[in-house]
């Protein structure tokens, strides 16, 4: 209900001039004589500071910043509150304005576009002053202070409902938005400007995820009927446009886009630039094309609307996302909508705001129907984690899962052209519910690349640089870069280019870079890179041949094994006294055969938490499959593979569960491909019989105490870097070390050298007396009872 007015008071506050027909406020009455002649002729000086009302138009220079508390406006949304200006009751009556009417404010001395606002009355004592809210004043009215403003009612005949409008971002340098962010902001900006009135050139300010954005009203279109009705040969005044719920909005970047500068596809990664992931690219592309309608779906087949790419960091997940974006744009001829979802930008401290933003993102995808939409989510475990530390994270996870269910709902027709492609480098941290059918139900694991894949990656990386690398060079680099993922190889080539500059890239430059670039996949899966050669091990020639037959031959001559129907052994057990080079043999085998090497100590698999020990065993074999061909070396396997007891104590129960998991992994449903188990123990009699059956550990090798020839080779290896005196007799040392293990022989040599330093720091040679002392200090420790145990085990 409008406020009551006092007509007598209003008449007393305003003075009417009979000469020019203007109403002048009492404060400007004395100076009216200066402008009266001009007004009588119908002319108005744009630079004048006079204030008056004439012919239903208010002219004023008084603008102030002030908020009024009006009971009827308390529940008004903020976007309408900022569109209100306040005028005195008298000024409104004289200008023939009513409460809530749209008025046009034009600065006469400037070329700025006019403003359209809603007028509201305030008490009469303010006369011709305009009062504006804080937010509106700071953005639009600061530059209008002191200028002569013309305020009149909006002519509805000049008002057109727009069918579409275009806004251009003006502050793109201060608050830059990517092209996909401009698309996401469209829905939010539309809500802020619905029912508002603008003209070409109007400035619009809005807030997008804590970024203050400024847009210029650039272009508009009306319906066909309105366009035809407004066709005329006469020039028409400025047209005002109202934004409605059905108005289509387009946001464009601030910089002018020239065809020669707009090259988004050339900078984006394509499939041809990715090496070693052909099979993964094919799987992802096939699923995406079915989901987006690029490929006809076979009858009766239900399409998957979500896919998860997971694997270690640097394996190429983000590159696949970019490549699929390029493929989708090409197949859709540019009509696809790409919406990247950044979990860091989605989260908000305000209650319900994060869930609202997620819903708006999916609504953007649905509004693009019938054209396809591709949702890209990197590190989805941050958006939907397994552990929910706060209520906010829990609410966001549930909201996101609900949105995925709606996307896959058969009743959601608009979701039939939407596909979600997500990545995660921490699959164990992802909420398990998101991986069920109907959500992200397709999964592709990206492991560490094989030697063939590494060759393809290096070939792709070096194709764009000047190099003289041949096929043999590429194969050599691929064979020695165990555990290097795509990102590591890219760093390797970059470091090699720095070494080669300004010359072409050569093999020696890449080899030099190997000392600086470490394999991240080996760091991720705890793979050791042994550097033990066969030449570092004395003797054991028969054992060496047996190990090569079991491991190297099946890999190097696989076709011959297939021709004869021979299956390579799944596992090998080495047993013997301590210090007889069992661990060194396994490391030398990994080094010489160019295989990845996983060293597992038995006790490190045990955990006090129920289920964690079994999970640790599963993780070991998952890692081994990931970097196959590989050797999994279990040192002291009797600690986890010991004979199962009949009791039901807590410790034995955990041990039995770990052993059961180990047996399942070695010979279960999921076969081990190119993964060989090598185990070592001092007590073979304590190992469970199920572990030693064919199909698991099916080859048992005895590593006994070194014989004379082996001891001679060990001494040559240990003494080749030690200066010996002329009196040192090698053959006598071989005889005196009978019964010593390889580790004990090494200890004798080490003790002799220390004794030489004890005698004199200036000693240049190790004397025979030093060795005699060392032999007394380091006696053989392998007991006859243990040797008898090994003999009995071999007989069995």
TrEMBL record:
<keyword id="KW-0677">Repeat</keyword>
<feature type="domain" description="AAA+ ATPase">
    <location>
        <begin position="303"/>
        <end position="450"/>
    </location>
</feature>
<keyword id="KW-0547">Nucleotide-binding</keyword>
<dbReference type="InterPro" id="IPR003959">
    <property type="entry name" value="ATPase_AAA_core"/>
</dbReference>
<dbReference type="InterPro" id="IPR027417">
    <property type="entry name" value="P-loop_NTPase"/>
</dbReference>
<dbReference type="InterPro" id="IPR050168">
    <property type="entry name" value="AAA_ATPase_domain"/>
</dbReference>
<dbReference type="GO" id="GO:0016887">
    <property type="term" value="F:ATP hydrolysis activity"/>
</dbReference>
<dbReference type="Pfam" id="PF00004">
    <property type="entry name" value="AAA"/>
</dbReference>
<dbReference type="GO" id="GO:0005737">
    <property type="term" value="C:cytoplasm"/>
</dbReference>
<dbReference type="GO" id="GO:0005524">
    <property type="term" value="F:ATP binding"/>
</dbReference>
<keyword id="KW-0067">ATP-binding</keyword>
<protein>
    <recommendedName>
        <fullName>AAA+ ATPase domain-containing protein</fullName>
    </recommendedName>
</protein>
<dbReference type="InterPro" id="IPR003593">
    <property type="entry name" value="AAA+_ATPase"/>
</dbReference>
<feature type="domain" description="AAA+ ATPase">
    <location>
        <begin position="568"/>
        <end position="707"/>
    </location>
</feature>
<dbReference type="Pfam" id="PF17862">
    <property type="entry name" value="AAA_lid_3"/>
</dbReference>
<dbReference type="InterPro" id="IPR003960">
    <property type="entry name" value="ATPase_AAA_CS"/>
</dbReference>
<dbReference type="InterPro" id="IPR041569">
    <property type="entry name" value="AAA_lid_3"/>
</dbReference>
